[in-house]
Design brief:
There is one protein chain. The protein is of the alpha+beta class. It is built from 2 helices and 4 strands; from the N terminus they run βββαβα. β3, α1 and β4 form a beta-alpha-beta unit. The chain starts with 5 loop residues before the first strand and ends in a 13-residue tail after the last helix. The model has no long low-confidence stretch (mean pLDDT 89).
Length: 104
């Protein structure tokens, strides 16, 4: 939370914290993507609150930030076994650009 190039946003439903968004720019990005990129490092919604549109609200916030910063690329990483997240990001228009195999 101390990196000035990372931002956190929290979503509440009925005064209960239900999830958060973390976006990174500049040197806070976990991969070298350049100054014209924004990384969505994390969108997390508690299981009991998934499928209520909260993830979409957080993704929209990330898009607003990208528009404000006039970035050319929004990127994120997803664990290949997280089918729910992959389906969500695909539904929201993200496309897979590469896959790096992880050694077990």
């Amino acid at each position: 939370m101390s990196n000035r190039f990372s931002q956190f946003f929290f979503v509440f439903l009925n005064q209960e914290l239900t999830g958060y968004l973390k976006v990174n720019t500049d040197e806070a990005q976990t991969e070298e993507m350049g100054d014209e990129s924004l990384e969505i490092e994390r969108i997390y919604i508690k299981n009991t609150f998934q499928k209520h549109g909260l993830g979409k609200c957080l993704l929209n916030k990330a898009m607003e930030i990208a528009i404000e910063r006039k970035v050319k690329r929004i990127w994120l990483g997803v664990w290949d076994k997280n089918a729910n997240a992959i389906a969500f990001y695909t539904k929201m228009g993200f496309v897979q650009t590469c896959q790096i195999p992880v050694q077990s």
